[in-house]
């Protein structure tokens, strides 16, 4: 239904491993792996955790294969024979054209409801986190936010003083054109004219 995406880009690695490992038991129909792998090939992975989970699937293995590895056969493998990692290509030193991103925060779930919108100008190729930082710099009373670092990158814990809670099952959800983002704020790169919504939500 989502052109090969399974959950989101973060869940793809483990999903591919699970489906490959259980391929002969999969029902009610054969799993079309080509569509799912095309999503992985097209994505520019930057989070170490996401890379660690997707790499086994790319070499036709899963974490289950660890129990059967022949370490004696691989201990003398020279660095030159190991699979190379793709370099991250950048445009260092080249000025990036500015883009405008529309950003709004909405809470109609808890306490005093609010909705605020702004437009910020950032260099192209900026992450959503950088968009949020510019909005907070320009209007700290409204768009201030807090994050915590996780193995998947920065996680937004609160915006405008309103924090998500595991007890209340609340969190800040990020959407574009009404659809939840497939990446986190530290890696998602909005395009010019895009409207990013942060909505206080429940799960």
TrEMBL record:
InterPro entries: Cbl-bd_prot, Cobalamin_Transport, Transcobalamin-like_C. Pfam families: Cobalamin_bind, DUF4430. It is found in: Secreted. Residues 125-197 form the Transcobalamin-like C-terminal domain. Cyanocob(III)alamin binds at residues 8, 53, 155-156, 181, 203. Its main location: secreted. Keywords: Cobalt, Cobalt transport, Ion transport, Secreted, Signal, Transport. One of its GO terms (molecular function) is cobalamin binding. One of its GO terms (cellular component) is extracellular space. The keyword Secreted applies. GO terms for biological process: cobalamin transport; cobalt ion transport. Belongs to the eukaryotic cobalamin transport proteins family. This is IF factor. The gene is Gif.
